[in-house]
Amino acid sequence: KPSSAAADVYKRQQQRRVHGNEVLEKIEKTAAIFDEEERLFKLHVEYLKEDARLLTEEGQLINKLQNPEENYDVDQYINPVSYTHLRAHETREDLVCRLLLEKKK
């Protein structure tokens, strides 16, 4: 039978090992969270870039429309979309407003 001191040392080593594993798990989870946060941030930046590009294009189109010297055909940029397509892009807020308006009728 091991001595009391040896048993205490062994017990502390086991506790440190368990504690070390818990710390390692937390470090790995934190790293995974940071990786996901970085991925989402990069995706967000890409969406911002796309928004900026679209806004620039929109501004250029508006400038062309407002220029009386420019013979500009608006119809080339207009594409009809279905009611179903519009509903697919409807936000929760849009839906609430639409339902309230329909309820008033």
How many extended strands?
Answer: 0
* Alpha-beta content class: mainly alpha
N to C succession of SSEs: HHH
First and last CA, distance: 88 Å
| Major pleated sheet | none
Helix content: over 70%
- So how many helices? 3
Which percent range describes the beta-strand content?
under 5%
The 3D shape can be described as elongated
Write down the overall mean pLDDT.
81
Summarize this entry quickly.
This protein is an all-alpha fold.
Which labels suit this protein?
single chain; about 100 residues; mainly alpha; 3 helices; about 0% strand; elongated
Would you give an account of this structure?
It is a single chain. Helix content is 78%, strand content 0%. It has 105 residues and is mainly α. The chain is elongated and about 100 Å long.
Please write out the topology:
Blueprint: H1 4-66, H2 83-88, H3 92-104
